[in-house]
What we know:
By secondary structure, this protein is α/β, with parallel strands linked by helices.
Amino acid sequence: MKTMVHAACPHDCPDACGVLITVxxxxxxxxxxxxxxxxTRGFLCAKVAKYLDRVYxxxxxxxxxxxxxxxxxxxxKRSEVWQRITWxxxxxxxxxxxxxxxxxxxxxxxxxxxxxxxxxxLNGASMDRRFFTRLGASELERTICSSAGEAGLESVMGVKLxxxxxxxxxxxxxxxxxxxIHGNNVHLWPFIVEARRKGAKLVVIDPYRxxxxxxxxxxxxxxxxxxxxxALAMMHVIIGENLHDPDYVAKYTLGFDELxxxxxxxxxxxxxxxxxxxxDDIRKLAREYATTRPAVIRVNYGVQRSEGGGMATRAIxxxxxxxxxxxxxxxGIHLSTSGAFDLNKSALRRPDLKAPDAKxxxxxxxxxxxxxxxxxxxxxxxxxxxxxxxxxxxxSKL
Length: 398
Ligand code: SF4
């Protein structure tokens, strides 16, 4: 029997594609993008278009496997490194190790470690959180990908919201800021192609000449980690030349007078020394951005992955606030739209399952894992649980 299943892509990706899966006699035989999904529009990215190859791959881990060769040993044959064990054996072994760690060092000596991948709210952050909360394990601060940028955006907007992808078709001036849209944001690209057909200009700001930069109308290579300086200098020009939108600023923003004073210290000549972009180009960019309507910025997470990256994202997020482009269809800024869905995360993660007499567990920042492993002593980390939300979960002990 042949059926068509409507699904959603579970990856941590802003496109949130609608997926159609053909199932014949209980086996998925075809995966395709949903033509009726407003962003997917019938095609999937290269990664997910090949998904069934992985679902039915003979290499997929479907059972508990125990390592029987010491890490780093010469053998590379999988069958010599891993031995299949039963679920009972695996669960017994894990619980026995946990018990012994807890008895000697306490629950906080155990640390779960996970992030994105193939997730979804239920699969990626629910049962595991409940289990480790109840256990009283150390908590993980999941910061490896986007926390600084999100904090920067939220400090300006109050929410993680941005211009919807299908609005880009109405944009007349598009800035791809550290965003390789052509390569990595494939469902946004057709909207930009359409906008350019109607006369929009595409500007790329990126230290690396990406595929998107190669086909931009104007490519501005920028020194890594200097995006904040460029945004401040753009605001210097926009406010200094009265290109901002005073009505929008008065009605919808706070702190403009302080910002006006702050950006006086960042003339293009000063920013040019840091960014490597000439003062003339900074002025031209600021003027074009402020006077071409609607103008939109697609900023991506590369900006926040450097020292001061959260503040840089914050400064970039202020640009559409002072020009008022947020009020226009096809204007604004897009970093994340995940704040559009008000998920009740507590209902999934159940922090209330903490044992009644348990103390609040310590928090380990995942980007400082090496430091935590080497310096935590009260108690030291003794059980490290790496969770992969894909075809399997894997557990390893220090
Ligand atoms: S672009 Fe790919 S990873 Fe992103 S939602 Fe669509 S299918 Fe999933």
